[in-house]
Amino acid sequence: MKRSAFSIHAIRAAALVLAISSLAGCDTLNDWFASDRVDYKTTGSAPPLKVPSDLQEAKTQPQYTAPPVSAALGGAPTRNVTAAGNSSEGVPTAHDPLGMHVERDGDRRWLVVDGRSPEQLWPQLEEFWKNNGFVLKTDTPATGIMTTDWAENRANIPDDWFRRTIGHLIDFAYSSGTRDRFRTLVVRGADGSTDISITHSALEEMLTGQDKDSSRWVERPRNPVLEAVFLAKLMEQFGLTDAQSKQLLTDARSASAPATVDMSGGATTLALADRFDVAWLRVGLALDRTNFTVDNRDREKGLYYVRYADSTEELKRDGLFGKLFFSSAPKQKTGKEFLVNVRGNGSGTEVSVLDANGQIDASAEAKNIISLLHAQLN
């Protein structure tokens, strides 16, 4: 029996076309900073309870007030008042009067928070993503990696007259046909600061078949502007105003240095002019933007443990139909694991791929990883 034209796929297709049309020309930072451009929050939550007009709201006694969810063991760090009057999470200095600044490498940006350790900021990062409507899938302070589950930006669905009237009854059927995921990398700085980067990954549902009655997920490019939006939101949680966070993004300091390929001795490595702590962060960011997932990392040994990851397969298994048709047993890690080594080399840093014996891997796969890193670092 042929499907009705009013199918979920048809709704999704129409919504996606309208969404793309509405986003045409909307690729500047100011456009994306509009409050209605980002909406990942759960739509099925109940409205907040209100006190009836004929009753007075009882005053809450201090001893019954729950502590902030961001408070770690021993309490959250005390904020500092800046010369501008902000209650900043960072420690203000003459170099950073707001207690933080943004650095960039091409279109990649990361936040540097002065005087705070990853342990102090981690609970607030957890709270940040949950407050923005995300579920954390990876939350490992030991490795400094925090990853959200795939989520839909509901702001991409046009709020037309049909959806506002009849459509709200079947709002669950509306979909932008896109999913986003964000990965937070938290790195301890050499001077007591903490570097925080946010990386965006994206998938898009493409209709397939002659009658467009089936679909598949395909990867789409990361959106550096969307990364900047969430970096600005994080700065606001750390105490900056909307205007200050945008200004720090605009004034992002260049931290780039060229990466060159060294093929001497039969092995392929990368040479960076950065000191180790900067190179360690840059390589971590570069790996984040490839199809390699960082399973673990050991800064003392200068090692990233990575493997190839298929995002579309992951979403297929984690989605509704995946839960019905795939085993509920814990998923085994698939694919060969590689060791990406970052080590100081004189005044610069060398990046290589090591084999199981700790020697530089000369295989075609290792050379491909070096090539991908070189493209990301330049």
State the gist of this model.
With 378 residues, the chain is of the alpha+beta class. The model is unreliable at 1-26, 42-74, 160-174 and 319-331 (pLDDT under 50). The chain is globular, with a radius of gyration of 23 Å.
Walk me through what this model shows:
Residues 79-90 have a biased composition (Polar residues). It holds the Pfam family Lipoprotein_18. This is Outer membrane protein assembly factor BamC. Residues 1-24 form the signal peptide. Residues 43-99 are annotated as: Disordered. This protein has 378 residues and is α+β, with helices and mostly antiparallel strands. The protein has a domain at 257-378: TATA-Binding Protein. Helices cover 27% and strands 26% of the residues. The protein has ten helices and 16 strands. The strands form three sheets. Strands 3, 4, 5, 6, 7, 8, 9 and 10 form an eight-stranded mixed β-sheet that branches. The chain has a six-stranded antiparallel β-sheet with strand order 11-12-16-15-14-13, covered by helices on one side. It has a two-stranded antiparallel sheet with strand order 1-2. β8 (194-208) and β9 form a beta hairpin. α5 packs across α6 and α7 packs across α10 (364-377). The termini are far apart. The relative contact order is 0.12. The model is unreliable at 1-26, 42-74, 160-174 and 319-331 (pLDDT under 50).
Global morphology: globular
Q: Give the number of DSSP strands.
A: 16
Radius of gyration: 23 Å
Query: In the CATH hierarchy, what is the superfamily of the domain at 257-378?
Result: Outer membrane protein assembly factor BamC
Average pLDDT metric: 74
Binned strand content: 25-35%
The CATH class of the domain at 257-378: Alpha Beta
What is the terminal separation in angstroms? Answer: 54 Å
User: Could you please say which CATH topology of the domain at 257-378 applies here?
Assistant: TATA-Binding Protein
> Which percent range fits the helix content?
25-40%
Q: Which architecture of the domain at 257-378 does the CATH hierarchy give at level 2?
A: 2-Layer Sandwich
What letter string, H or E per element, gives the SSE order?
A: HHEEEEHEEHEEEHHEEEHEEHHEEH
Poorly predicted runs of 5 or more residues: 1-26, 42-74, 160-174, 319-331
Largest sheet: 8 strands, mixed
Helix segment tally: 10
